[in-house]
Structure formats: C-alpha cells, structure tokens
C-alpha cells in the first residue's frame, strides 16, 4: 500500500503541541454528527485538539438543528450559558471563542449575532471548509458565512488521520448526498441544507477506502434523501445508490453497509434488488412515512398514498424477507382529524416496525405548513403522540424479544458496561452486550441472544464461530 502524503501531513500537523482545545457540541441528525467530525478535522491542522469538557475549551462550536422549535430554542439557552463562561474567562484575561454552525446558523444567520452578542462566528453547513479563515477573521470582530459557495466543501475539508479514525470507532458515517428538493410542507431541510447534490463516486470511494484502511468495518451512507443519490460514476455515467453500494462492497475490510434517510418515492428497483443480492447491505431500512392518511400525506406534499407505501413494503419484504423497517411519524399536522390519526395507527399496525421515531408537529416559520389554518391544539398532539407511542413501542419491544433464542451476527464496537463485556450492534441496529475478549472489537461474530432489555440485547458468543466472519463479515 502506498503511503498517503495527505494523511502524513495531517498527522504531523496534529502532533504539533499548540494545544488549543476544541469542543464541537452536536445536535440533530446523523449528518450533523458527520459534520462535527469534519469540523474537528479541518481545525486539527490549526492546532486544535478535541476536548469533551467545556471548561477546558478555547473554542466551542454549537452544531445546531432547526428541525423542530424545541431543537432551535435549545441553542439560545446553550449560548446564554456560554456567554457567562466567556465573561468569566475574560475576567481572568483568557478567551473563549463561540461559533454557531449547523441548520440554525443557516436559517437564522445574522439574527443569531443580534440575539446573542457573545457569538464570534456563524457558519452554515456548506462553508465548514472556510472555518480556519473565519476564525482568524473573528479575532477582529464577528464573522458570518451562510453562503452556498460554488466550490465543493468536500474538496477542501481535511482528511482525518488514521489514528483519529481509529479513536472514532469501527462504525462510521459518510455523507454521499446533501440537501433536498422534496419540500415536504412541514420541513426546513430544503432551506437549511439547500438543493439536492450528490458527491462523485470516485471521491466517496476514496473516503471509504481511507476509512476501511484505518479500521472502519461499517459505513452508513448519509443523505437527506439518500436513495435519490445520483452521482457521477467511475465510468463517467450517472450512478444510482445501488450502483454506488455495489462498488463500495468491493472495498477490502468493510463488513457492513447501511444508508439513511430514504424517501419512499425514490426506492428504486435496483436498490430493492441490492437488498436481495448483497449480504454486505444490512437488512434494516429507515423509510419514513410520516402519516397513514392520504389526505394528510397530500397536505404534507409527500406525493404518495398510504397504499403506495404498503405496496412498497411488500416488494422490499419479498426481496429480503428478514428486513427490519423503521419509520418517522408526525402527529398533529394541521387539519389532522381523529380519523386521519387512526389511519396512521392502522398503517403502523399493518407494517409492524422494528423501531420508530415519532414527533409532534412543530410549525416552522417559512414552511408552507406553518401558514395552514387548522393548527392542532397541543393537548391533542400530546394525546395522539402517547397513543402512537404505545403502539410502536410495543412493536419495538416485540421485535427485540423475537431475537431471543436466535443466532445473529454482531459487529463489536467497544468495551461493554461491565468488565469482561463487549458491546456491538446486530444487523438490525440493536445494541448487543456479551461476555467476550476486547480482541473481538472491530470483528463480527455470531452471538446467541438469550435475553432482551428495554433497548439492548444480551447474548453469548457462539463457540468457534468468530473467525469465519473476519474476512468479509458475511455468514
Ligand atoms: N429526509 C430527512 C428527514 C429529516 S427530518 C432525513 O434525512 O432524515 C427527520 C424527521 O423529523 C422527519 O422524517 C419528520 O418525521 C420529522 N420532522 C421534520 N420536520 C418536522 C416538523 N416541522 N415537526 C415535527 N417533526 C418534523
Ligand atoms: Fe424534509 Fe421531506 Fe426533504 Fe425529508 S424529504 S428532508 S422530510 S423535505
Ligand atoms: Fe436538524 Fe439540519 Fe439535520 S435541521 S435534522 S441538523 S439536516
């Protein structure tokens, strides 16, 4: 294998004892978690070392989420606390720089500086590669960059060193697509992340190979609308997500691939076939439906009916019978009647989800849903949320309980809760704890499940089975 000059440089630069401490606090979705790592990577050559202790930090980046009101509000209470800390530092003759990144930064821009003067810089998700330059400017006064620049940030973001990747663990995110053109009437994402763009296959492959070389065994491909991926392929053609997955499956050392989040209307035939044909693609699919009522789905601008979703689920299950499905639901969208809500419960019953995220509708300024009459009172939203929760939580528990007595493949990620235990994930994303040696971390092994708790499964290693999985992670 050829030495990689980029990585060598990154390692040399991070090794410099400049010792400024960086804390990136991330809220929201997996893409924000991925971005948090990339921000730390771009700041490493500037001499920033990560810390988890705010008291220790010279720079705090709040990587924010705008999806619901509660998520956005959290940012300003957090900034209030940071202001106090900054003032205390100043009294000691020291500095604390405060940056706001992520989707609130994109949505509110300069308004953040007006609401909280302690903020030094505001940076939108498409400008993270400009962070080092922005920080230098921020020494002279507040800076803001919420452009959608013409250059591709991914081309300018620093590669993490192999050591850094190892510290982050054996399972990694990789953004392949960003932005959304779907404009669901409740959602801020098309405004905060911009238009749909897909990264070129060659660049994704290079990043995935670098991750795999550094010990990553599982990659989750990320995109706001990931199954709508269509990037320039290695042959110059337009490649689908399925074709990208086929290519990534050939990378040495990778045992598992996942992708999220998908829109039902972009679940193409070749992707469904990939679930049938490719063991590396884990049998778990997050496929948000939001509502079971055609009227509400129409008002949400989801552009499919409940029955289309059911037929799609049938086709996916026909291709991969053991696939587990998860979904997002919103209750209390404007105009939602008891009858509409019952249709949602009925859909949940009919599908039987392995896990589910459910939210009360939150009116977001600038989205069409916020202007609709017939907003639903908070008590009704809460009551419906509780009823939906009862149904889908029972489904999740039943799914977990159905694992007891089964032998499933686990990818071990870290040491467990108790000494002598190791923890990993099942193919269905369930946390699994077993008694076993630390040497198995980074490996897949067959585990017999003996018990299930509220969130985790417990089991024992199946004697002599682990080594046969080391090569490709396939049974
Ligand atoms: N396609 C996206 C969805 C992002 S938002 C993705 O990549 O994950 C995640 C979920 O938040 C949505 O599926 C929806 O269920 C929920 N959500 C989005 N906007 C919302 C709002 N205004 N109120 C309540 N929930 C919302
Ligand atoms: Fe939001 Fe809809 Fe796009 Fe998902 S598909 S990011 S819910 S607009
Ligand atoms: Fe939140 Fe932005 Fe993700 S609004 S859910 S952080 S894309």
Summarize the structure in words.
The protein has 475 residues and is an alpha/beta fold. It has 4 domains: 5-145, Methylthiotransferase, N-terminal domain (Rossmann fold), CATH 3.40.50; 159-280, Transcription Regulator spoIIAA, CATH 3.30.750; 283-395, Transcription Regulator spoIIAA (2-Layer Sandwich); 407-473, Nucleic acid-binding proteins (OB fold (Dihydrolipoamide Acetyltransferase, E2P), Beta Barrel). It is 36% helix and 21% strand. The chain has helices at 5-15, 30-43, 69-91, 102-108, 110-115, 131-138, 153-156, 162-168, 189-192, 201-213, 241-248, 269-277, 294-299, 306-319, 338-351, 378-401, and strands at residues 20-26, 48-50, 59-64, 97-101, 121-123, 143-145, 171-175, 177-178, 197-198, 218-222, 230-232, 238-240, 256-260, 284-286, 324-331, 355-360, 407-415, 421-425, 431-435, 444-452, 457-461. Helix 11 runs parallel beside helix 12 and helix 15 (338-351) packs parallel to helix 16 (378-401). The chain starts with a helix and ends in a 14-residue tail after the last strand. Mean pLDDT is 93; it is low at 1-17 and 467-475.
Topology of this structure?
Elements: H1 5-15, E1 20-26, H2 30-43, E2 48-50, E3 59-64, H3 69-91, E4 97-101, H4 102-108, H5 110-115, E5 121-123, H6 131-138, E6 143-145, H7 153-156, H8 162-168, E7 171-175, E8 177-178, H9 189-192, E9 197-198, H10 201-213, E10 218-222, E11 230-232, E12 238-240, H11 241-248, E13 256-260, H12 269-277, E14 284-286, H13 294-299, H14 306-319, E15 324-331, H15 338-351, E16 355-360, H16 378-401, E17 407-415, E18 421-425, E19 431-435, E20 444-452, E21 457-461
Parallel strand pairs: 1-2, 1-3, 3-4, 4-5, 5-6, 7-10, 10-13, 14-15, 15-16, 19-21
Antiparallel strand pairs: 8-9, 11-12, 17-18, 17-20, 18-19, 20-21
Helix pairs in contact: 11-12, 15-16
This protein binds S-adenosyl-L-homocysteine, iron/sulfur cluster and FE3-S4 cluster.
